[in-house]
Design a protein that fits this description.
- By secondary structure, the chain is mainly α.
- The chain has one domain.
- It is built from eight helices and no strands.
- α2 runs antiparallel to α3.
- It starts with a helix and ends with a helix.
């Protein structure tokens, strides 16, 4: 193609047709400019398409993370409800001093599960990727970006609140471990005290029922606080999912 244009220029010059050559030269320049502009437009269009595809990929990944969050929240709430029943049974067992077996059963259940402090660990991989790489800007819907940031910001607040609660209950847990034979009843450590009389340990625990009741009530309160927060997070999760799906449908 370049050889073809070069031949035309040479023919025009050899025939002393300078005016025609000038017109031709200007036309050739315009053609080159137009070609460059078209190439730039195509390149810009390709970049925009790549960014749109990247945006879709991130939004779909966020939906997967949020699905995991909903599943984990529902599982955590179910575990908390079961734990609350164990704690209630443990506290009410102090009203029954005649049945050692019943006391041991409720105490064993408490030290096995009632002492647990639940946590919610969200799926943050996509959000961390968006934040650390600066790719949050590929999401063109600024309102959606604000919702995403607010969602993970709220989760951080819940985590911090739960950490405060854990720090608050830990000294009481330590007092129970130090001042009572809790480890003799806890299924994870009871085998270490195989020669000890469990009935004596139960009676000793019953003698410390005020401390144990306060400890159990503290765990019950923490569980209820976390459950309320998880219910709120679940609502935010479902709302964010709908916003993301709506944005994807518009693309």
């Amino acid at each position: 193609m370049l050889k073809f244009f070069r031949n035309i220029r040479q023919n025009l010059l050899s025939e002393n047709k300078f005016s025609k050559y000038l017109v031709y030269a200007v036309g050739e320049i315009l053609l080159v400019v137009i070609g460059i502009l078209v190439a730039l437009q195509i390149n810009q269009w390709k970049q925009e398409q790549d960014l749109k595809q990247l945006e879709k990929t991130y939004l779909k990944r966020l939906l997967i993370d949020l699905d995991h969050d909903v599943t984990n929240i529902e599982a955590a709430i179910a575990d908390i409800d079961e734990n609350q029943s164990i704690i209630k049974s443990f506290i009410s067992s102090f009203n029954n001093t005649s049945n050692i077996d019943s006391l041991q059963k409720s105490m064993t259940a408490f030290f096995e599960n009632g002492w647990l402090i639940f946590e919610f660990v969200p799926s943050r991989n996509t959000y961390i990727d968006l934040s650390q790489t600066g790719n949050m800007k590929v999401i063109t819907n600024t309102s959606l970006v604000n919702d995403i940031i607010s969602y993970y910001g709220y989760i951080t607040q819940v985590e911090e609140s739960n950490n405060v609660n854990k720090n608050w209950i830990t000294p009481i847990d330590q007092a129970v471990a130090k001042e009572t034979p809790a480890f003799e009843i806890d299924p994870s450590t009871s085998d270490l005290f195989i020669n000890n009389d469990k009935s004596i340990a139960i009676k000793n625990l019953f003698a410390n029922k005020d401390l144990l009741s306060r400890d159990a009530a503290g765990h019950y309160w923490i569980n209820r606080s976390l459950k309320d927060n998880l219910i709120a997070i679940k609502g935010l999760t479902l709302d964010l999912q709908e916003s993301i799906k709506s944005d994807l449908n518009k693309q």
